[in-house]
Design a protein that fits this description.
homotetramer, 219 residues, mainly alpha, Arc Repressor Mutant, subunit A, Tetracycline Repressor, domain 2, 2 domains, 10 helices, DNA-binding
DNA sequence: TATGAATGAGTTTTCATTCAT
DNA sequence: TATGAATGAAAACTCATTCAT
């Protein structure tokens, strides 16, 4: 069974797409966010100066503040924008899949693909965004909640259909899966791996579905 | 099958134990580290001032620098000290367990127990230490490597004994497990949960061993 | 034979002149340098805080760093600016004098006059700039070299014209003269003398030209 | 006429001599001063730590304060001790010389010789001691006064005997000579010259006595 | 909208000096 | 006398943010 590769698009494609969706303001805003992601990925959030971001974006320092109200908001907006996009796409693409197992697999694929096609974003997501309790508490609850919600819904559907073991807590399973995917992603970023991250989807999901025990001996 | 609860000790017990092991210098060094963990956990690393740590430890600002050469080293020493202790204890206790499945379960138990008994440490580990590429790259490789190595060894032994599926990459499985455990821990910290973290060991390991699929349908 | 007193200008005159020559940036830069010289002269370089300089200049602390990259550079820029000005003026005015003896005398006059008309500068030059090997080695070679070069050229010309004893090392004579002038200046500064420094030109040059021996007995 | 080379002694000789003159306290005090001079010469006064001096002297930090009451006093004591020694020696040796011209020459010789035989001392004298108005004003007056006094006395005697031009201000001439000697010394130190400093005595004194003008044309 | 010069709050770290032993 | 652990004052510099143009 193969990893589904529905058109995830190239990075350039994504840029164009986003640009055409918004007006001029949205376009510039997005342009600044791209610059910020690149700068943060290169030097780390704390070592990056707002003026570095401005220079990368080809605008004056003050202009950044016409679009974002603080350096912090630059970081959280990178997260929000990418998460919105991810969730929008996930919901859209998952709607076309029937089997909850394939839905989960595709969800994992989208997760990895969105990081793989934009390494700057991956670095910001896996490394820079983890700083500070502020982010972890503030954003986790707000936007990650929907991420988890999607997984939970699929799990619950799968349980209703007899595909997943019914006694498992859907909430726990969702965290379990996220933890596994997140660790793969972090590891891929930190190791500066050139290997494909999406190639990990099948092996990871295989363990997730079947566990590590052989002949399914109950432990 | 129950989670093994070999004497993990209380936090107070641990303090006394460490103190008697070292000389006066080690004792004071450790005292400062405790204060730092408490302060960092309370306010976050970046919002904490070295003078806060000094005050918490009941010493002068400058004295901190007689034991640690920078604020950064305070953070990394919290990690190192706890990891050393964890690994030492894990190796010791795992040696007394024969079944690789029980070894993994106990490993997970130790992981959760060491965070649960010291919430300051847990916060520092799950939140504060994730900041900056510097830490992630610097310490990951050095000390986390041994953490992963222990898991891998158990996995491989289990595979040789026919307990774990032989075709799985031990490396991948180790990351998978760590990711799941780490996410549980982070979630426990962020949600300010009063629930027991160690109580999650069995449910988590159950999924890890058996997967989420019902009747083990190969996906 | 009198000391030539070509228009050396007042301090106020000098300020205006420099200001009109540069752009706005140069003007502000120069304004900060004046403030720094005043503060350093008053309290000494090490006892002066950058914030003292900023307050004296009527700007914010950080603004100093938009024009100079360190407190050190403030000190060295005072030297450089004054030396550039001195050398420029010296070369210009010496060009109009034929007799090498009068050239040397005028050179000494300019040296003393530039210190006398700006006591802050004099204090910085004679006292504050002497601190640290760093300055002495760094700037000596770079800018003092031209100072010495001017003297040497005059000496050599004088020797060719039979005015100065040909067997003397021009290099040695230049150091000899500088040493004598420098000591007079330092003494004038340290003693808080109200006496005229330029009044010392003729007596000093007289000894320099004729030596201390009476009836020219060869010693 | 040759530069007199009365036994000025080696540095090792000097150390022994001083040591035997004082008691144990004086000996240790002197030992610390040697260490301080070495450290200050190597790193500069401001970059040197009291603990560096203590380590160089092979004693504990606190012990330094049993002999000197501050880091500042360490610097000024180096000056005082060397000046005392210099003046004592100069007065003693000059007493055996009749001709004021030879006295001056020998005085210059002693000045250069004492720096040449102890480069650490030379660096401290020519560079480190010049820092801060404090030193320049405090010590100049106190101990340099006697230095100048010696020169003035010789000058005045020489004038009475018709050897030096009577109309010259002895005070001015003393400064003139000191300035010239001081500049040679500073130059020798800064240029890291391996050339002999004492070799400069004769050429310098020759200019001092006879001036630079040829055929003694009155300028 | 865009600019970019100016602001000024904020904190780690050093190291001379002390003093209990 | 000697030690050296502990003290704590002190300041250069950065950079996010503002605002007059």
């Amino acid at each position: 069974m193969e990893t589904t590769r529905r058109q995830v698009g190239t990075q350039a494609g994504a840029e164009a797409e986003v640009a055409e969706r918004g007006g001029l303001r949205a376009e510039k805003s997005w342009h600044i966010l791209r610059a910020a992601a690149k700068v943060f990925a290169r030097s780390g959030y704390f070592n990056s100066k707002v003026s570095d971001v401005a220079r990368e974006a080809g605008i004056a320092d003050g202009t950044v503040y016409l679009y974002f109200k603080s350096k912090d908001e630059l970081l959280s907006s990178i997260f929000s924008a990418a998460m919105d996009e991810f969730i929008r796409r996930a919901r859209a693409e998952l709607a076309g899949i029937v089997d909850p197992r394939e839905q989960l697999r595709h969800f994992a694929y989208l997760h990895f693909a969105s990081l793989e096609r934009d390494r700057d974003l991956a670095i910001v997501f896996q490394i820079e965004l983890r700083q500070s309790t502020k982010f972890m508490e503030q954003f986790s609850s707000a936007q990650l909640a929907e991420y988890f919600q999607i997984i939970r819904e699929i799990i619950e559907t799968g349980q209703q259909r007899g595909l997943f073991r019914p006694q498992l807590s859907a909430r726990l399973v969702a965290k379990f899966l996220f933890g596994a995917l997140d660790e793969m992603a972090t590891n891929w970023v930190i190791s500066h791996s050139n290997a494909s991250l999406t190639a990990m989807v099948d092996p990871v999901m295989e363990i997730f579905f079947n566990g590590v025990s052989s002949n399914h001996a109950q432990v």
